Fold:
Amino acid sequence: MKRLTETSMIAALLTLLLGGSTLAQDRILISSDWGNVTAELADNAAARALAGMLPLTIEMDDHLRQEKTGNLPAALPAASRQREFSARTLGLWSSGDFVIYYRNGRVPSPGIVILGQIQGDVSIFDRPGKVTIKIHKE
Structure:
């Protein structure tokens, strides 16, 4: 029994040491003339690819009074999609369409890739018109 416990502890330690970066979420800062928010990126290939593109500047348009959308400089890899989203969700509509949702909702098929969750007050984006955002690693 003692040997099994030691083996389990060694395996857990190796997992933490070798795979620790997958346990820690990447945090980003999204800034604009309207205010700043931080977000935690999701643990998927698309979010990791987004983090690798940073820093970015994206011009965002208002869409359906629920989200701001803008084009990324390059496509992100595919990841699982879902149709439901909540306010504060960072998403990917098509492979290069970055979205900040400031209201709850649902999208048609095939859905969105979840890129992360904003930690701050997303209501700064709840206004008509364009806004330019800058995204940096925090």
